[in-house]
Design a protein that fits this description.
With 112 residues, the protein is an all-alpha fold. It is built from three helices and no strands. It is elongated, with a radius of gyration of 20 Å.
């Protein structure tokens, strides 16, 4: 069962948003972490090339890059924790948190 926001109730052709399948979420989260880390790594690398002209500017750029990495790591960890908590609540109580759809959490578990 797939859900979507907007469009027709019969198909998601004109939908504003179609979420990914729950089984794809871990891979997509890894892609998000990689995507968010790239600017921070590039800033740290750029600080080495700036080092030849100004030590203060190189330190500032490196600190911004490190701050970017820290903030993006915290955001991804928070999102992952929210999703895991929602799955836990659904598995224990059968309660679906307000921001999640029942179908998203129900399909996260496989029947054996």
């Amino acid at each position: 069962m797939q859900n979507w926001i907007g469009g027709s109730h019969r198909n998601p052709i004109d939908a504003y948003f179609v979420p990914p399948e729950p089984t794809a979420v871990p891979v997509l989260m890894e892609d998000l972490v990689t995507y968010l880390a790239i600017p921070g790594v590039l800033l740290i690398i750029a600080s080495f090339s700036i080092l030849a002209t100004s030590v203060a500017a190189a330190l500032l750029v490196a600190l911004v890059g490190i701050a970017w990495l820290i903030v993006s790591t915290v955001v991804v960890a928070a999102l992952s924790g929210i999703y895991q908590t929602a799955l836990y609540r659904f598995s224990v109580d059968g309660v679906v948190p307000v921001a999640f759809a029942d179908a998203d959490l129900a399909h996260a578990f496989r029947h054996r």
